[in-house]
UniProtKB/TrEMBL annotation:
Keyword Nucleus included in the entry's annotation: no
InterPro entries: Methyltransf_25 (IPR041698), SAM-dependent_MTases_sf (IPR029063)
Domain Methyltransferase: 60-155
The protein's name in its UniProt record: Putative methyltransferase
Gene source species: Streptomyces lydicamycinicus
Keywords for this protein: Methyltransferase, Transferase
Keyword Transferase annotated: yes
Protein origin, superkingdom: Bacteria
One GO biological process term: antibiotic biosynthetic process
PANTHER family recorded: TRANS-ACONITATE 2-METHYLTRANSFERASE, TRANS-ACONITATE 2-METHYLTRANSFERASE-RELATED
Pfam families in the cross-refs: Methyltransf_25
């Protein structure tokens, strides 16, 4: 699949699938999330790359912003105009408290179609930290294509995923259940390339939540430029 206008993707209808269960899990987690995931070195490093490589005052979308910590706060502190979206009302409420200078909306990624927060080319950068892994694999290329179009030419995307060969797989998560998807490293590179992005940097970190005894997961951070 090559990059083109997301309005032309018939497959984008997939992005309207019901994700209510996902939102309910994060609503239940609420402010426990940041306590369970206190160390986010990879996310902070990737956010710094995004913040430092865009002009001051750039408009940045924080996709799946969660509580606003650390990314929306980090990007706003760097002088950028941050627009965050999340499907969880509890997360949006916390984000507004944590980063009052940013603009937060309770929206699903599907709601970005049709210029809801600005049409093609309306963002200089996008942060998508562990948000696309909440989608089935069949939806991820369409989501990447939409993000490609929301970016200005040569705009930047900081993307993180967990390295795992899974598709819409149910896992326990802080006393709840969520569904996640992942890719092996080479497959993720191929998917972003096919969506119209150049990989300009890449990092990997081993990570485990502080509140569990599960083995560390491998988190992949890709620094992408719209081709």
């Amino acid at each position: 699949m090559s990059a083109t206008s997301y309005d032309g993707y018939e497959g984008l209808n997939r992005l309207a699938l019901d994700r209510a269960g996902q939102a309910e899990a994060f609503d239940a987690i609420g402010d426990r999330y940041d306590d369970a995931f206190p160390h986010k070195e990879g996310q902070l490093a990737s956010g710094a790359w995004l913040a430092d490589n865009l002009p001051a005052g750039s408009r940045i979308l924080d996709l799946g912003c969660g509580t606003g910590l650390p990314s929306a706060h980090q990007l706003a502190d760097a002088g950028h105009r941050v627009v965050g979206i999340d499907l969880s009302p509890s997360m949006i409420k916390l984000a507004r408290q944590n980063v009052p200078v940013a603009d937060f909306h309770r929206l699903d990624i599907a709601d970005l179609r049709g210029g809801r927060l600005g049409g093609p080319g309306s963002f200089d950068g996008i942060a998508a930290f562990f948000s696309l892994l909440m989608l089935p694999r069949a939806e991820i290329p369409y989501a990447l294509g939409m993000l490609h179009d929301l970016l200005r030419p040569e705009g930047l995307l900081a993307l993180s995923m967990v390295e795992a060969d899974v598709d819409d797989f149910t896992i326990p998560f802080l006393g709840n259940s969520i569904r996640v998807s992942g890719y092996l490293r080479d497959d993720l590179r191929r998917v972003v390339h096919d969506a119209g992005f150049d990989v300009v940097g890449e990092d990997a970190y081993a990570y485990a939540p502080s509140s569990t005894d599960v083995p560390p997961e491998i988190q992949l951070f890709l620094h992408l430029r719209r081709a």
